[in-house]
Amino acid sequence: MAEFRIEGITTAGKPVQGLLEAGTLRDAKAKASQLASQRNFKLLHVIPRTTWMYKVQRGTEKPVMGEQKAFSRAEVEDALTKMGFRVIRVQKRLLDFKPKPPSTEIVTFVRVSADLIRQKLPFNEILQLLVNDIENRTLREAIKDINLELKQGRDSEKTFVKHEAVLGRFTAHMLGLASKSGNMAEIYESTAKFLERQTDFKKNMKSALITPLVTLVVLFGAVVYYVGYIFPATAKLFVKFKIDLPPMTKTTLAISDFLVENILWIVLGCAIPAVLAARFLTTEKGRLLRDQYIWGIPVIGALLHKTSIEIFCRVFYALYSGSGENIEVIRMAAEASGNKYMEARIKSIAIPLMIQKGAGITEAFEATGVFTKTAISRFHSGAETGTVKNTALQLAEYYEKETTYKMKNVIEFIQLWISMIIMVVLTALTIVSSETATIRPKNPAAGGQGQVLELRIERSIT
After folding, report:
1. Among candidates 340, 104, 106, which has minimal Cα distance to 206?
2. Helix (H) or strand (E) holding 52
3. What distance lies between CA 152 and its chain's CA centroid?
4. Is 436 exposed, middle or buried (0-12, 13-18, 19+ CB in 10 A)?
5. Mind listing the pLDDT tens digit for each residue in 301-360?
6. Which residues have C-beta within 8 Å of that of residue 307, sequence separation ≥ 6?
7. Measured between alpha carbons, how far is 441 from 241 in angstroms, rounded to an integer?
8. DSSP per-residue codes, 264-304
9. pLDDT tens sequence across 91-108
10. What is the reported pTM?
């Protein structure tokens, strides 16, 4: 989340200044207006913290170029002047676009951090080493900000969650909770292990599906071109000479005419719902509904469901012994699960049952309806034997192995269906083309017109 500075004035004429975080400038202005209304002051400005490019020189040394985040040019110039530099130029970065870093960069960051933590290296030194070595600018700046804020004594969870757009929701929550858990090395190791497995799955998925998908796209374009332009040129020749068309040829020609006449409406009819759906899915309610029904998708849904349970159990295991209240542990694990529906059910059903009615962990989890029978059974056994923490780890390991194996099946399943679609489309085109080739005039002997028509047909088919 970006950082903004708000400036205002009280009714008594005193200046007011503060900082807030928001996703966009519009959200920041809304938060600032609400704060001004609550604190009874007049809002004057909402200034985003942006990147400034500078060129400075110390004495006769070679000029140095760099960049610094600040709210204004004056802040940058004052800071550089106090450091003994002569400011040559300070200007705002025109295009401060920060694309999300590749997943491999994030995995490397977490993996290296986990290894260095196990070697007892101080965490601030680890972050400083990574800032110097990471090439991706977006990730480098995020780690630099995290290191700076942690040195200032800010809450680690809020510091990492602030950068969840860069690190990812699961990673940001896990790393943010690591320093609070008292088991930092294990949480980093678990996070690195999960991210490595997730990255391998995506890589295997891309490598396995890129050829079929490219083939499918090219085939779709060829079919549209054939049905919209090539096929009508042949079929309408028969219509011109009042020759009866076979059923499939007649139907294909009708489809072709419909597509050509209504192409604009078809494009708008597909594009507008897609855009509206995409915008809806960015809202809180949209994400909740998406995560609720995504588990019902054949094959893939069950895999995503068990992956969410695995993440929940890993976070639960990592924090259960270090946190004083298991209610807070359950809340944190729900937020890190990566599924809004699961998070909402646990927060709205399981936690109130445990707090207000004193329900046990098994009863509360079962009431949510988001845990599998296997998970409920294992938590029940863990609650009876007092080994809930170890049970959570066992469930996470079990679902990790199961989902890893099923990921391969998912890839094969998708490949199979893409191949079947390609086969069906090619078969349909072959049948239609073959049917067109069998068409002949009603009376081929009636003068040269029939012969010329037949010759044109043959050439067209060829």
Report:
1. 104
2. strand 50-57
3. 31
4. buried
5. 888 898 889 888 887 887 776 444 578 788 878 887 878 999 999 999 999 998 888 888
6. 338, 399, 403
7. 8
8. HHHHHHHHHHHHHHHHHTTSHHHHHHHHHHGGGSTTHHHHH
9. 887 766 667 788 888 888
10. 0.64
